[in-house]
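Quick one - first record:
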Amino acid sequence: MVLINNLIGNFGRFHYWLCFIVFMSKFGVAFHQMAIIFLAPPAHYTCPRNATCCDNPVYDKSIFTRTIVTEWNLICKNDWLKDLTQTIFQFGVLSGSLIFGIASDRYGRKPTLIISVIIEIFAGIMSSFMPTYWSFTFVRMFVGFANGGIMIISFVIIMEYVGSSYRDVLSALFHVPFTTGHILLAAVGYLIRDYTYFQLFISLSNVLLLLYICILPETPRWLLVMNKTEQAVVLMEQVAKINKLPTEEIRQKVESYQFEHRHVKPNNTVLDLFRTPNLRKNIIIMSFAWLVCSYCFYGVTYYISHLTGDVFINVVATGTVCLVGCIICIPLIKFSKRRSVVVVANILNSLCLFIVGFVPEGKGSVVMGCIGELLCYIIFIVLYLFCTEMFPTVVRNAAIGICSMMARLGAMIAPFAAGLRPFGKWCAPVAFGIFPMIAGFLCLLLPETKDCELMNSIEEAEALGRNSSSNLRTSNDLNVTE
């Protein structure tokens, strides 16, 4: 058996460099994901004769000099359009997660990530110059489309390179650049109060990512699964050399293993996730868990955003909560089982949200809301790792793409649940709180993946969880599909 990480190292100089260049893409994702806060903040205006609505309102520009709301009068009967632009953006993320996830399993991690980055940069720049609301919204949808691809492909690249002993820590640290970008966005919004320059700045900040064309490597695991043995050997030798490991036996070990386990180039599709009972159960439950996590996270964030009128403080506060979640996750997933963390955190999150609905509004509800948001982000981080370990290389990005698509659907539904408040202050928290409880108990049906080597074949993934002997415990085996 060929031990990939025994040959290239579990985590060395190359892995530090890889993490640095891949993590840079997360800042742009955070900027665009959270940009709507500063693109369409609440607008204050006055009308002649103190009318509620009018065609030529006078806007208060003391905080923001120009937003999409003031530019295209998205008030009164057009107020719903400012939410629609974000819904369409999230639809782009939803589509990109699925399409790029499937494409990267077929065509490789590197080319699909590069295409995602190129679309994100140029669509983002174009959107800042769009003259109408509809053209702005349409072009920004492609920014979301690219964001969906970047989020899932970048994560899988990191997970397929690092050894299992480092995978849990890296899966938490992977989200730190996103939360840092979330916090930094408050400074960008504070310094740039015109939405066109704001959108242009956050788009141009990603131009350096075009260097991916020259420096981003493919993953050896994907190359070997696709029978690109020569390319995989050359790449593994380069990685081992950078990590100061011997390279003499790499070619011989890889080629002999590939010869002994000759197999037809896999032609798996996303449908393979639903053809066998175990995989079908896993992908359905995992998709529901992602949907619920995103649904609750954006719903709770919406609740917290109404705690103060200072939008900049709101952004820093929510970003800081998420950053704390990343830090807490490191020991949690290092020493606890994936399934246990997801189940317990979902149940606690559900209880927190129920408490928010039935305690008087004030410090108590605020604290419970912040704890709920923290738990949502912890679940989100663990689900990323859990999903990566549960599905094989041949459909891994497709599986994460489906789950990410469901997460976007949850984000799109959340504002409607948050709008239940007029029917009673308990309605929205209960509408958010009931689903984590359901998700928590459903996740008990999922197999545990802690300390399992990443699988490559559908057969291995289908066997996972059937019995303890089928779990591939820290073998670091290549396990190429036969």
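second record:
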Amino acid sequence: MGYRYGNRQRCEEGESGEAGEGVDGRKEREKMRENVIKWKRKAERAACLDGPSMLNLDRLINEVLLKGHE
């Protein structure tokens, strides 16, 4: 049986499994780092001049703000 305290996970004596991995969380940190890099790249692409964020902003301006000025 194991328990968690904050970010740390402890295993009771006699429990099978990878106790060391839960204690220091190397794999969890690496997975988090990979996710951060992935989301950073997605955000950078979205913010480009031809990215979806800019296209949505252009569409908003054209359909809503400039609609009455035609």
